Every structure is written in structure tokens, then in C-alpha cells.
Amino acid sequence: MSVPADAPILTTKAMREAEAACAIQGTSLSELMELAGAAVADTARRMAAGAPILILCGPGNNGGDGYVAARLLAERGASVRVAALAEPVTDLAKAARAGWSGPIEPLNGRLAPAPLIVDALFGVGSSRPISDELAVILGHFDDRRILAVDVPSGVDSDGGANWTPPLSADVTLALGALKPAHVLLPTAPACGRVLLAPIGISASKAIGTLPKPGTAKPDATAHKFNRGMVLVFAGPMRGAAALSAAAALRAGAGYVVLEGSERAPFSAIIAESDERFGERLNDPRVGAVVIGPGFPAGDELLFDVEAALDSNKALVLDAAAIDAALPRLSETPRNAILTPHEGEFARAFPQLYGSKIDRAKAAAARTQAVVIYKGADTIIAAPDGRVAAAWPGSPWLATAGTGDVLAGACGAMLARGGDAFDAAVAAVGWHIAQAARIGPGLVADDLVRE
Ligand SMILES: NC(=O)C1=CN([C@@H]2O[C@H](COP(=O)(O)OP(=O)(O)OC[C@H]3O[C@@H](n4cnc5c(N)ncnc54)[C@H](OP(=O)(O)O)[C@@H]3O)[C@@H](O)[C@H]2O)[C@@H](O)CC1
Ligand SMILES: Nc1ncnc2c1ncn2[C@@H]1O[C@H](COP(=O)(O)OP(=O)(O)O)[C@@H](O)[C@H]1O
Ligand SMILES: [K+]
């Protein structure tokens, strides 16, 4: 499973707007369909490697792409058959259908398969889950190589409805831009390897996939304080804060101070008493404060969160510290990153609706903070509407303590100064890259070791 890095993601509404803008600039929808069909044909040819191809066409423009691809494949001498679920209903699909001169087989339980199946049944126009009857017919093909056109049929491309498609794709060819369904659960795993065919649509990158992580080499004139100084509050479970502090150091902070002394993970981490630590909140060199890891809700946490908020420093708020800070967060806009997992998000932001992207955006707007809504399909959202999707992360991260590591990495990236969204994106990228490097057997401590 993979998605292209730094690629735009468009909802259906945004896609229709981009299509309309294309038409105004002089590229007709039929030209777009020709480009889309050509990209499908190219990908199918490569996947089939000379073996026969069966294209399943639906009634809308997704089916239209299928007919165009069939015509182009036949022109190039490929062995290609077409089966249709229904007659085309759009003018574009009718025209594309008219361009295919071969036979059209009915899509029913007697349809003979082929080594490569091209799923051009439904794309961004999917309006409901696939019927049980069609799901059974498609089930006959699930041992074949599957190329899905735009999205696997039967997903809600905006990711709001949790429909799961009956056929999982080996490759999904996204047309013009990626769609939320390619990067959100439960549909992303069914997309397989996602490829992007640009087809000339100019897509805004307000929502996109993670960029490739950069190597943030320190400036030649770097000094430990200007690389970023991070304060980490330790709650009663000191191991969690120790992981965050170690992660901050590993992720590039020049100086890390941890409250309390028993569990400083590296000799380079300065462990300080409550009083001395409290004074540090006024230290102008401190670039970011991390609070929440290892800190259950309670008076002690509330007290420390208040102190952190009063300091006006950039903040990373994790776990119970998110709830504790919520009432005051939007009061004074500041650089802040919240890192809730699913349960913490539901508790802090009940009654948000829509896809995970919609909900993360709403939470960011409400708190005026950057939200890293964690999980296998992590979403990072900024108050100004920017969103980055981290699918596929590393499943080796599904182990206790990795969230504490992410909070520390966020502290390091934030302490350098600059934009909190960029810091969050860099931290999530660093986290995934570390996990990918370690792989099997990963435990959270490994992420902060050499
Ligand atoms: N964006 C671009 O720039 C370009 C986009 N292009 C392509 O167009 C695609 C979008 O096409 P589209 O809008 O015509 O919708 P599409 O996905 O074919 O489906 C609509 C039809 O399916 C039906 N239907 C839906 N769900 C169903 C179900 N569960 N079970 C049964 N029927 C169901 C629905 O019926 P209805 O809901 O109206 O009853 C309607 O008839 C896009 O994904 C891309 O491939 C490229 O060609 C060019 C550039
Ligand atoms: N299946 C998965 N694939 C990718 N990343 C995952 C997966 N499961 C968990 N993660 C990541 O691991 C981290 C777990 O954080 P969290 O749930 O807060 O754990 P903890 O509180 O034990 O530290 C998050 O960054 C999350 O995005
Ligand atoms: K499809």
C-alpha cells in the first residue's frame, strides 16, 4: 500500500469545481476523459503484461473512462473485453461507448474473468453502497489482479460514509487528484497502491499527502539553544514524559529540560525540580512546552496546563492535557499542536460530523490549534484549512508509548520556531520514517535510540 507523496486530495465538490475551471480554460470534459482513459489504458497494459484484460463499465463517466481505455488498448493490440452493468447515462459516457467497436458482455454471474480486471463501475459519483447482488458477482473476481479507475467501486470517495468495496484493488489510478477515500479508513487499504494521473486538472493542495521527510540538517552556525529548547512536563507516569523528552532530543531539539529527575533517559537531558522547572517557563530561550504524556486528568495536570498556557509559549498538548486546555485554547491564539488519538478526539470534540478530514478541520478551527488526529490514517489539520494525510503510516507504530514519542518530536519541531502545521507535518513524517527504519519488533523506546 502506498500513495504518492505531496499529492493533492480533492473532495467530490472540489473535483467538480476543478473540472469546471478546466472547461473555462479551454479543456473540455471529453478531452479530460480521453486523457483519463489513456492513463487507464497505460496502467492496465503495464499490469497485464500481455495477458487478457476485462474492463467492467458502469453507467456514468467512470464507465466512460473504461470504454475509452478499451478502445485505446484494442488499438494497441491488447486482448481486451468489455462488460457493462447498464447502458451509459451521461453524454460523455455514451460518446465513449460509441467509440468502442467490440462486443459488450452483460455483467452477471456467468461472466468469464480475465487475469486483469479493470474496475470502471463507479467513481466519485458513487451514491450508495454496492447492492448485495452486484457484490456477489464481483466477488468472483477477487482472486484476479484488480485495477480500480479513480476509486474502487463502492467507496464514498469523500470518506464520510464507511462503505467498504466488495473488490479490493491491487492498484488504484486516481484521476486528476487523490480523493479522501484513498487515505482514510476503512477504504484506504482497499485501494492498494495508489497512482496519480494528473490529466491536466489544476488541483489546490490545501489538502494533500505528506511530503517526503527532509533531513533537517542543522545550520552550519547552529547553537544548542537556537536548534530549539523544549520543556517537558512529567506527570505521575514518568516513563511517558521520559520518552517524549528523548524523542525531542532525537528529533533535533538542541536542549531538553524534563521536570523531575528519576527517569531522565539520556545524560544530555536536564532534569529539574518543580520550582526550577517552573522558572524555565519564563526563559525566553524556551521554544516549546510538551504536556500530557503520562499525565492522568486531575488537579495536578490542570495546574500545570494553566501554567503552560500562562507562559504564552508554543505548546504540544497530548492526552488529558487536551481537555484541560480546551476552554482557554482559542482565547489567545498561539502556536499549539494537539495530538489526540481516536478516543481522546471523541471526548474532546463530540458532535463533529463528516469524514475524519472534516472532523479534524473542524477541531482545528474551533481550537485555533493544529490538530494531529492520530491513528493508522493520521490527519493533520490547521485552523486555516490546510490538511495533510499520513496514510499509509507504519503499522509497527501500533504499540504503547509511540504517541509519547510523537508528542516529543512535535516539541522539537515547534521549538525551532515557524509554522505549527509545518512542525506537525515534519514530526509525523519523522515518526513514520523512524518506524519504517526499525520495522519488525519495534517498541517505543527504539524510536528514540540511535
Ligand atoms: N473529475 C474529472 O475531472 C474527471 C472524471 N472522470 C471520471 O468520471 C467519474 C465520475 O463520473 P460520474 O460523476 O458520472 O459518476 P460515476 O462515478 O460514474 O457514477 C455515477 C453513476 O453510477 C450510478 N451509481 C452510483 N452508485 C451506485 C451504486 N452503488 N449502485 C448502482 N449505481 C450506482 C449513479 O446512479 P444514481 O446514483 O444517479 O442512481 C450514476 O449513474 C470519475 O470518478 C472519473 O472516473 C474522467 O472521465 C474525466 C475527468
Ligand atoms: N496501524 C497503525 N499504522 C500507523 N500508525 C499507527 C497505527 N496505530 C497507531 N499508530 C500511530 O502510533 C501512535 C500511537 O499513539 P497513542 O495512541 O497516543 O499511543 P500511546 O498513548 O500508547 O503513546 C500514533 O502516532 C498513531 O498515529
Ligand atoms: K471504479
Automatic annotation (TrEMBL):
Annotated YjeF C-terminal domain residues: 207-450
Cofactor (UniProt): K(+)
EC numbers on record: 5.1.99.6
GO biological process, one term: metabolite repair
Keywords linked to the UniProt accession: ATP-binding, Isomerase, Lyase, Metal-binding, Multifunctional enzyme, NAD, NADP, Nucleotide-binding, Potassium
PROSITE patterns: YJEF_C_3 (PS51383), YJEF_N (PS51385)
Annotated residues for binding of (6S)-NADPHX: N61, N62, G63, G64, D65, G123, V124, G125, S126, S127, R128, P129, D150
GO MF, one annotated term: ADP-dependent NAD(P)H-hydrate dehydratase activity
Residues involved in K(+) binding: N62, D119, S153
Annotated cofactor note: Binds 1 potassium ion per subunit.
Pfam families (UniProt xref): Carb_kinase, YjeF_N
Residue ranges of every copy of the YjeF N-terminal domain listed in the record: 15-207
EC top class named in words: isomerase
Keyword Transport part of the UniProt annotation: no
Catalytic activity: (6S)-NADHX + ADP = AMP + phosphate + NADH + H(+); (6R)-NADHX = (6S)-NADHX; (6R)-NADPHX = (6S)-NADPHX; (6S)-NADPHX + ADP = AMP + phosphate + NADPH + H(+)
HAMAP family in the record: NADHX_epimerase
Recorded family membership: In the C-terminal section; belongs to the NnrD/CARKD family.
Function: Bifunctional enzyme that catalyzes the epimerization of the S- and R-forms of NAD(P)HX and the dehydration of the S-form of NAD(P)HX at the expense of ADP, which is converted to AMP. This allows the repair of both epimers of NAD(P)HX, a damaged form of NAD(P)H that is a result of enzymatic or heat-dependent hydration. Catalyzes the epimerization of the S- and R-forms of NAD(P)HX, a damaged form of NAD(P)H that is a result of enzymatic or heat-dependent hydration. This is a prerequisite for the S-specific NAD(P)H-hydrate dehydratase to allow the repair of both epimers of NAD(P)HX.
NCBIfam families assigned: yjeF_cterm (TIGR00196), yjeF_nterm (TIGR00197)
PANTHER family in the cross-refs: ATP-DEPENDENT (S)-NAD(P)H-HYDRATE DEHYDRATASE (PTHR12592:SF0), ATP-DEPENDENT (S)-NAD(P)H-HYDRATE DEHYDRATASE FAMILY MEMBER (PTHR12592)
Protein name: NAD(P)H-hydrate epimerase
Organism field: Sphingopyxis fribergensis
